[in-house]
Automatic annotation (TrEMBL):
Superkingdom to which the source organism belongs: Bacteria
Location of the protein in the cell: Cytoplasm
UniProt name for this protein: Elongation factor Ts
Keyword Cytoplasm included in the entry's annotation: yes
Amino acid sequence: MEISAQLVKELRDRTQAGFMECRKALADAAGDMEKAFGILKQKGSLHAQKKSDRVTSEGLVSSYIHAGSKIGVLIEVNCETDFVARTEDFKTLTKDLAMHIAAASPKVVDRKDMDEKIVSEARERFLEEAKDKPENVRHKIVEGKLDKFLQESCLLEQAYVKDPGITVRDLINAAIAKLGENVIVNRFVRYQIGEANG
């Protein structure tokens, strides 16, 4: 099957994967964009898993100031080598992540970073909200709400603002596959005028 350059470009724009990788995924999916996206998403996750224990001692601190200068973000994104840190792809990734944080206001990078006290308070609040529900479904309701709360609070689990069809973790996994190095978000801080703790 002949795969058009336009179709490859659309998939590249969506996934940040290389040209040949997108072309192969589209060929394997018989030109079906969603199937090809699924193939590349799976590959990105596999690439990320293979590289996840590599040391990330290089990287960049990037910033984003939203129009009107009422919201600002500083973010540290790490990779394995200074060479990759200086590439346009890596710089673009750090800028996109900072912009996402400004828009989506995550609290932490990953679930493991969430303060147990905040999780306990959220669970109590959801238990109170579900107190009139039958006993046999109350636990499922609370756990479902807690899971949604954590997804919305944790950067890696949020839907990426530029493409809600993928998560921030998917975006980073695609970058890992493209750059050939482990990439992690080490930390970030988001400032907003009028917020006490940024």
